[in-house]
Protein 1
Amino acid sequence: MPVSTTSSRAVYDALKASGVRLMSALPETWLVHLIRMAEEDPEMILVRLAKEEEGVGISAGAHLAGVKSAMLMQNHGFLASINGIVSCAQLYHIPLLMLISYRGEFGERDPWQTEGGGVTEDVLRALRIPFSFLDRADQVAPRIAKAQTLALSANKPVALLLCRDLMWEEA
Amino acid sequence: MKRLDALRSIYTHLEDRIVVTIMGAVAAELQSLGHRQNFFYLQHAMGLASSMGLGIALSKPDRQVIVFDGDGSILMNLGGLTTLARYRPRNLVHVVFDNESLLSVGGFPTATSTGSDLAGIAAAAGIPRTATVSTLDAFSRAFEEALGAGDLTTIVAKVEAVGPSAYVTDLSLLENRFQFSRSLRS
């Protein structure tokens, strides 16, 4: 499976460096290494979800209790979480660091990913969620650090889109 | 059993514990008994109170966390019961007030009115301790046992579909949020 271990490691290390100690995740292909790294790290609490919206509540609880967290999910999981993001995280001004694998963009071979891919950025804009892209390895650490800084200063959800060029190593 | 009486019967146990409630009648009734800084009322995002309780319980393993949920809310997040069971926070007591209806929007019946058994669903999801109670004595006994048991418990309390005349209180959502967070971090 050509999911980049190197890029996954860079993302994981940057999340740790930004203070994240709890991750909620719903497995998807691009996230397999990240989830495994969280599972093997005794300093990280990993919560595997049944549906992504639960992660909003879990992260909100962790934040109120003083623990920094991140959510790992696919863009379709983000789409499934919208009421939680609006009616919990935004309503209550809770920082939420969301790492969203951006399926369905250029290069996508799975037909079922393409519709969600086409609406992801528009939905983020409609929700006024600040977002940026992780598509090159050298951007990973500074962008994750800056995203976390903004989430905490603004007390709001922010999103980083994990892109194909970073996460997938084409044969 | 009325939910307000059930809350009153255990109120003293809540004083030093972390409490998360759902929106609507539960939030208004607990506030009517006396708001405390360690109480958080999730006034929307139906279904997520139990997930929020899980996030707090995992982050604060030395504190006991109580979630007051409802049938309408937990029915929106049944998958969350499997997540709760999977991580089994031993410091979490999950109370579901089951009035078999969506009271605050006009009393429309939920699926528990036609037989869906929330304690059975919780047990089958893997929650180690579950109970259904329908009297005040049984409720307060089950709640006190859960506090002492040191394990994840879901108590389904069958209550009448009656509530307060108003749901909005003078506690603003953000005031509650920052008070609560400060009390958890102190």
Note: The two ends of chain A are 10 Å apart (CA to CA).
Protein 2
Amino acid sequence: MSKLVSFFGQKVKVINLGIPSFAEDLKKQGVEVMHTEWRPPAGGNKKIQALLAKVEAWQSKVKAGKGAR
Amino acid sequence: MLIDIQEANAKALAAIQAAQPIIKGIDTAINVVPGMKKNLILHAGPPITWAKMSGPLKGAVIGGLIYEGLAANPAEAEKLAASSQIEYSPWHEHDGVGPMAGVATASMPVWIVENKTNGRKTFCTLNEGLGKVLRYGAFSDEVITRLKWMEKTLAPVLKAAIPLAAEINLKNMIAQALQMGDEVHNRNKAATSMLIRELAAAITKTSFSQEEKARVLEFMHSNDHFFLNLSMPAAKVMLQAAEWIEGSTIVTTMCRNGTEFGIRVAGLKDRWFTGPAQIVQGLLFPGFEEKDCNPDIGDSAITETCGLGGFSMAAAPAIVKFVGGTVSDAMNFTRKMYEITDGESQSFQIPAMDFRGSPTGINLLKVCEKNILPQINTGIAHKDAGVGQVGAGLVNPPMKCFEDALEAYVEKYCQN
């Protein structure tokens, strides 16, 4: 409990992932914030995600096969 | 199949980097372009039928048939164009490229660009200038008269001059142009100037009349885009070096026919993946509105495919006055393109980015995974045949091309 109290007593430093406007709003309030660009893989497109997963699985097999030679 | 994608792509990128495009000469299309014949019309972009062509492409076909002497007037040309007597094929399937509508017929003169590293050749017509020109779908008498002058005077003079000049290495010239504010898609001012500098003395040494030689130099000088028809085949011949490396996910072609955008991928030999051509957002000439604009058209996106054009916009800040946006947009476009490419050009450097090599080797997998589309800058054609250019701007390919290519890649390689 004391840790939680001391946490709220500290100056807040924020790492923002994804939506830049969240970081901008915090900056306007004087909060120290670092923005990191992040997007869901394939922009959230499930079909492309599934296709990329197949490529990744194939490449894992290829690399394992090469290692076994 | 035991193919390591990283290795396949490294091989493709190394082949692109090793290419050395030079100006080999000029000849008539039917003499040098593979598969060219009298009733064949080459066009920009992926395959398309007459019925599906947009206004500027139809206009350029009409002009091409009149120029070739196959039709006496636009009405006759339109009838012939819709008949089975005329065949259509993409420039890209004949080792060449064409800006905007990209129409080429048998009698047109073409640049011959050779990759000295592997001996392969690429072809492209000569640039007509801006405004009412065939490549924007214009076919009036002034357009045909200019094309005839290009065939009878411009091409023969340049053809005679090229062997009298020192060998022109286009890769070196493009590298230099990037140091001088060009990105060689929509800004070719420095490259055109350098080309004139290399050829001027040789032109004066030819046996043509003073008047003809002067007119050739004046024509080149009056057209800042004259070099575009060399930057395009140079980019094409560099990318040809990556065709068709098994397993590679490097994109070797991006092009548009005014109706569809098409891509091809090194590891998916000859296959086209298409989606609807997009509307270009940009600056329009006075008197024109967005409703006048044709969707994206032309093979000139081959420059972006090779890491030039929109990918090198950080090298050409002045271009934003022509295509729209701000200088920081131009810088950001280039920065973003590093996220979807596998390498950086060893030749094309960007001064404003501490001479970092331009983003080169678009990786299909990165485009799909990061959901970042290639950035293209381009001219805008009027949607109606015969009008010409109405502006210039920025555009992206449709994601569908990349999604379909990824699906085909998985089908070909990832089944076991």
Note: The interface with chain B takes residues 39, 41-43, 45, 47-48, 51-52, 54-55, 57-59, 62-63, 65-66 of chain A (CB under 8 Å).
